[in-house]
Design goal:
The protein is an all-alpha fold. The protein has 12 helices and 2 strands; from the N terminus they run αααααβαααβαααα.
C-alpha cells in the first residue's frame, strides 16, 4: 500500500503534512486560534474512521456500533478523572483502585477496555453476516448507550465534565498546540502501523475474506479468527480516539455512544473512500469543513450535506481520495505507463 503512492498522491500528502505541522502557528499568527481546536477534532475523528475502515474497507464488516468503543474510551477517561479529582476510589473490593489523570495510565486502559468490549461483541456478532451483523452491532451499541444513561453517579443523560486534560509528563496537554501535535503524531503512527498491517499476510487474508470468505475457508484460513482480530484492533484504536475526544471537549456524555455517532464514522469513511489508507483522513477533513461552513448558513445544514454525500457515492464511488488515485490511473493509461 505504501509503495503505491506516486503521481499526485505523494505531493498531496507532503503538502498536507506541511500544512498540518504549520497550522497551529498559522492559526495563532492570523488570530484564529479556534482553528487549532477544530483541526484537533478532525484528527480525532480521522483516527476513529481509520479504525472503522480497517474492518469496513478491508474486512467487509459493516459495523453500525463503532461508537460503542469510541464512547467507552471516552468514559474510561472521564470516570478515572472524576475519581482522581474527588479523591474517592473507583472501587474498594477485591482491591482498591483510585482515579487517575495520567495519560500513560488512562489512555492505554481506555484502549484495553474498548478492546475487551470489542472481543465480546465481535465474538457474538461475527457468528452472523450481512444485515444481521449490522443489526447486532447496533443493538450492542445501544445497550451500552442506555447503560451510560443509567450511570447517575457519572451524570447520567447530562454527561460528565472533566476538570482538566490528562497529564503526560513533560508535555503540557492543557496547551492546545501541544495536544494537537500529540494527536497528529498518534494519527500518523496508526497510519504507519495500519499500512504495515495491510501489506502483511494479515491484511491480504483480511482482504481475501472481504472478497470471498467461502474461498478463504476452503483454502484453510480461520476466517473468523482473522475477522475477530481486526475487530478487536479497530475497537482498541476507536477507544483511543474516544479518550482523545474526551480530552478535547473536556466532557463525556452518552451521545459519544449513540448510533448517530456510528453513522457519522460511516459517512466519513464513505466520503473519503473505503479500503484506502488515507481516505478516512480526507473524509474527516471534508466532513468537518462542510459542517463548519454549512452550519454557519443554517441549523438545518444536513439537508444540504445529504445530497452532497449522495453525489459523492454516485460519481466518486471510491470516495474523495479515490479521485486522486483515479487521476493517477488515467494518466498512466494515457501515457502507456503500466
Amino acid at each position: 500500500m505504501m509503495g503505491e503512492r506516486s503521481g499526485l498522491e505523494r505531493p498531496i500528502l507532503l503538502a498536507a503534512l506541511l500544512v498540518a505541522l504549520a497550522l497551529p502557528w498559522l492559526a495563532q499568527a492570523s488570530g484564529y486560534d479556534f482553528v487549532t481546536g477544530v483541526a484537533t477534532r478532525v484528527l480525532i475523528l480521522a483516527l476513529a474512521a481509520l479504525s472503522l475502515n480497517l474492518i469496513l474497507g478491508f474486512g467487509g464488516m459493516v459495523s453500525f456500533g463503532h461508537a460503542a468503543f469510541f464512547g467507552t474510551g471516552a468514559y474510561v477517561v472521564g470516570i478515572l478523572s472524576y475519581h482522581a479529582t474527588l479523591g474517592g476510589p473507583l472501587m474498594t473490593w477485591p482491591i482498591e483502585i483510585g482515579g487517575s489523570e495520567s495519560a500513560v495510565v488512562v489512555w492505554p486502559l481506555a484502549m484495553l477496555v474498548a478492546a475487551l468490549l470489542a472481543l465480546v461483541i465481535g465474538a457474538l456478532s461475527l457468528r452472523t453476516s450481512g444485515l444481521y451483523f449490522i443489526m447486532i452491532t447496533l443493538a450492542f451499541a445501544q445497550m451500552i448507550y442506555y447503560f451510560a444513561v443509567s450511570l447517575e453517579a457519572y451524570g447520567g443523560d447530562d454527561g460528565l465534565p472533566l476538570w482538566s486534560r490528562s497529564t503526560a509528563g513533560p508535555l503540557a496537554l492543557r496547551d492546545d498546540r501541544q495536544f494537537y501535535y500529540l494527536v497528529l503524531a498518534l494519527l500518523l503512527l496508526f497510519v504507519l502501523l495500519k499500512a504495515r498491517l495491510i501489506a502483511a499476510r494479515f491484511g491480504r487474508v483480511l482482504s481475501g475474506i472481504r472478497d470471498n470468505e467461502r474461498r478463504m475457508k476452503a483454502i484453510g484460513f480461520p476466517t473468523t479468527r482473522y475477522k475477530l482480530s481486526a475487530f478487536v484492533i479497530a475497537g482498541a484504536v476507536a477507544g483511543l480516539a474516544g479518550a482523545l475526544m474526551a480530552n478535547q471537549t473536556l466532557f463525556v456524555s452518552p451521545s459519544f455512544l449513540d448510533w448517530p455517532r456510528s453513522g457519522e464514522f460511516l459517512v466519513i469513511v464513505i466520503l473519503g473512500g473505503m479500503g484506502s489508507l488515507w481516505g478516512p483522513v480526507a473524509g474527516a477533513v471534508a466532513f468537518i469543513l462542510l459542517e463548519e461552513l454549512l452550519s454557519g448558513v443554517s441549523v438545518h445544514w444536513r439537508i444540504v450535506f445529504g445530497p452532497l454525500l449522495i453525489l459523492v457515492v454516485l460519481f466518486a464511488k471510491q470516495g474523495l481520495w479515490g479521485l486522486v488515485t483515479a487521476r493517477r490511473a488515467a494518466v498512466r493509461e494515457a501515457t502507456g505507463d503500466g
